[in-house]
Structure formats: structure tokens, C-alpha cells
Design a protein that fits this description.
By secondary structure, this protein is α+β, with helices and mostly antiparallel strands. Helices cover 28% and strands 41% of the residues. The protein has one helix and three strands, in the order E-E-H-E. It has one helix spanning 31-49, and strands at residues 3-12, 19-27, 53-61. The protein has a three-stranded antiparallel sheet, covered by helices on one side. Strand 1 (3-12) and strand 2 form a beta hairpin. It is elongated, with a radius of gyration of 12 Å. The N and C termini lie close together (8 Å).
Length: 69
């Protein structure tokens, strides 16, 4: 199965300089363009589940070899 990643850069609300990258994996159904279209809803869902963290940047990308499923 091919996957596409929604790559989120997230920071702690209480410490905005403490940031990390989070990758959400999805089945590739239309490539990066479809990921970009669906991303806002997924980001809103993720943000609702993680209220102490804030998404400051995002992009869609294919996983690297070491991160493929």
C-alpha cells in the first residue's frame, strides 16, 4: 500500500519554542494534491485531540524509505 504523509510542525502552547514534527500516514488516494485538499479537516481533528499543542506549519509529502509502511 502506498502512503502519503501529512507532516505537521507542532509547538507547545505553553512554550512556543519547543517544537517537533509529527507525521500522520494516510493511504495514497490521489497523491499530494489530495492530501493538501483533505489536510485542513485532519489538522482540525488532530488539534482538537491535542489542545496543549499548536500546529504552526504543515505540508504533504511522501514518506522517506526509513519511514515507509
Amino acid at each position: 500500500m502506498n502512503v502519503v504523509d501529512l507532516v505537521l510542525t507542532i509547538c507547545l502552547v505553553s512554550n512556543p519554542s519547543s517544537c517537533r514534527e509529527e507525521r500522520l500516514h494516510f493511504e495514497d488516494r490521489g497523491g499530494v494534491l489530495n492530501c493538501m485538499f483533505l489536510a485542513p479537516a485532519e489538522i482540525a481533528k488532530w488539534s482538537g485531540q491535542h489542545p496543549k499543542q499548536k500546529v504552526v506549519r504543515w505540508k504533504c509529502d511522501y514518506p522517506t524509505n526509513e519511514r515507509s509502511l
